Each structure stands twice: as structure tokens, then as C-alpha cells.
Amino acid sequence: MASSSQNPYTDRRWACLGVSATGTFMSTLDGGIVNVALPTIAHRFNTDLPAAQWVVTIYLLVIVCLLPAFGRLGDMTGRKRKYFLGFLIFALSSALCGAAPGLGWIVAGRALQAVGAALLMANGPAIIMMSFPGHERGRALGMLGMVVSLGSLAGPSLGGLLVGAFGWPYIFYVNVPIGILGMFLVCRILPADKHPSAERFDFFGAAIYAVGIVSLVMGITHGGTWGWLGPATLGAWILAFGALAFFVRSQAKSMHPVIDPSLFRIRALTVGNIASFLSFMALLTNAIMLPFFLQRVAGLPPMRVGLIMAAQPLAMAFVAPFAGLASERASHALLTSVGMALAACGLYAQTFLTADSTLTHFLLNQVILGLGFGVFLAPNNNAVLGSAPPAKSGIAGAIMGLVRTLGMVTGIAAAAAVYQAFSGGATAMDLRAVPAFSRAGFDAAMTFAAVLAVLGILVSLARGPARGAAPGPRQGSALDPPGR
Fold first, then answer.
1. Model-level pTM?
2. Domain residue spans in the chain?
3. Residues in CB range of 418: below 8 A, 6 or more apart
């Protein structure tokens, strides 16, 4: 059957969404599963939890290093082969992690797994952008938001079930059949889109970026442990900002930059990424602080804590498709601002919790929070991706993923720092510490998260009243060479 358009992705747009959603679900599921299994892995290899934490840290570091590079490569030469390679690497490295004879092997396998995840994360949004160049993109992103929520929800519960029933290796083995399914779907559904490029990849710029971003993430992640003004933290900050400043200058002069600086002159893209950063900082503050309150103040068992925490992603999964559909017709500024307003209410309401609060009260706060983030995410992503030129959709999606990851890392560090500042130096983050819990620290952290959400409202309003229904001035072919 002849293609009905210049863009072969649009002829199979909902099937292409399914391929992208499979990769998104696998990478989202993996984070929650691994976190649950860390204590078991540490016990199995007779190591302490800080050493085992490298199973998570190395995954994060490799992803933030590679996201822009893989997004740029996808823009230059096509996405199908890279998405297939992402599934292949993720499945093989998962099998390696499951069969690992020692912790070092797991860390190495997780680094390789992150390479596959970065290929998927960098090219997944671009596949949606190519499949939905204008009309229906909002509902597609809404469906993807539902997949993200369900993956986040399923990760911890499935991880606990697999560890308890079969052992820790199966938290990795579960990715193998999903990866095989993903490779099959890529071969059957995604159109061939390989095209030659006259542009050269800036390997030097990518290396400088990697040095800067790794130093930045290490400083944020370990600043509380090393001391925010300690020599190790200050060294990380100096190296990070020096390398990133040099990277910015070099990209401005480069003929073929890894990250095109002109993208940040697009108001909707820049504003949307700032709003996303604030939203994920706020979301992770809730995720890291509330479980400690529920266990140490309310005295709830872990199973009930899990039930309460599940309410937020469930609410997100419910509302995300509707928010995506609405973003095709309504103002992105209005929808994202309403979403952040709901989130701010849900976050600040946490400061009214007491040891005697009912289960309904706990659940209601999380539902309000989930509805808020669900209303925010799909319209915000639609605004960001829709504002980027089709030939640069890969790097735009990679920047979006990078900002999201940095927001999560910064949110965890900021929550711990605010809690510590208002609790006389005690920390809720160390489960081995005395069970004392500072109510003042908790209230300060949740108020800080609510302020972040309010700032998100102000930033969202700055994007202007653009609607999501109208396509861009030109619906470019997925096979167009970059810069056309």
C-alpha cells in the first residue's frame, strides 16, 4: 500500500506509539524494581549499602552522559536502528546483571544497561514527534504519560514479588522478554528511516559535556555526605561549571554542535524544560520524605505505606490521557498552570498531616498530587516537543529527558538539605540512624516542594497562550536531512 504522506511514521502512528511505549515502560519499570532489591543485593554479596548504591548511581551517570549524544545521532542518521539497538543492549545487559557473580559485575552490567536505556529515552520522544507531527500528538503523549505512571507503579511491587518468590536475579531477567518483544516490534512496525548525513558528530564536545555533567550530578548527589562546602564537593562544582561553561562556548562556535544553542531561543522549549525541572524536584521531595513520615510518625506498616504511595501514580495514569487530549485544544499555559496549582495544594496539604490522620486523608493528598502532575506533564511535553523543528526532535527529546533526570536528582538532594537545615542536623535519609523524626524538617521540606510548584505556575504562565491543536508551519518528513 502506498504511503499517504511524505512521512512514513504517520501511516502507522498508533503502532509506532506502542513501540515507543514499550521502551518507556521497560526503562521506567527498571528503576523501581532495582531500588527495591538493593538491600537484598548488598546482603548477597556481603557489602554495605553505600557500595550497593553504585548499582543505581552508575545507571544515572551513564544516562545523563549519553542522552544528548544519542538524540543528536538519531537526528543525524535516523532512529529505527538505534531504537532496536537500545532494546538489544538493555536485554543483554539485564541478562548479564542477573547472572553476575559479584557486585562489580552488576555495576558493569548496569552501566551497559544505561547505554540501552539512553538510546531508548533519547529516540522515543522523537518517534512520537515523527508519528504525530501535529494533530493527535497531545493524546499520544497523554497515553505515554499513563505508561510512565504504570511503570513507576509496577516497579516496586513487581520487584518485591520477584525478589520474594524467585530471588534478586529475576528483577533483571524480567527485562529480557520485554526487550525481545521490543526488538520484534521495531522490526515489524517502525519504518526504515536511515539517511546519510553530511554533518559530523562532535566527539570532543560530547566528552567535555560528559565531564561537566558527571561532576555536576556527583556534587548534587554526594554533597550532603561530603559536606556542601567540603573540598570534594567544591572540586566537583568547580570542575562541573568549568567544563559546562567551556562546552557552552564551544557549542556556540561549532558547525555541528551536540546541543544546538539555537534551540534555547525557542521560548516554549526553554520555559517548558524549566517548568519540568521544578515539577520533578517537587515530585521527588514528596517521594523521598513521605514514606519516612508514614512509618516513623504515623507508625504504618510497609504494606500500607506502599498503598498510599501508589495513589499518586494511579491518579497520574488516570488523568494523563485526558490531559493529553485537552492539550490539543486548550492553552498549554493554562493546563500546566492548573496542574502545578493542584500539585502545590497536594504538597502543602502534607504539612497538616498528623500521627492520627486517617488513611483517607493520606490517600486524598496523594490523589490531588497525582492529578496535578498528570494534568501538567502531557501538555508540557507537547509544548516542548511541538516547538522543536522536526529535524531536531531527537535532541529536543533528549534535553527533556536530561532535565527530568536532573530535576529528580536535585529534588532528592534538596529535600535532604532542607530537612537537615530545619531539624537540627538530623537526617531522615539514613535508615540506620535513630528513629527520631523531625516534624519541623518534614514540614519545611514539603513547604519547599509546594513553593517549587508555585514557581512552576509562574514559569508555565510565561510560555504564552499557544494551543496544541495546530501543527507547525511544515510537517517535515522523517527522512528529511537535518537542517533542511
1. 0.82
2. 9-191, 264-468
3. 441, 444, 445, 448
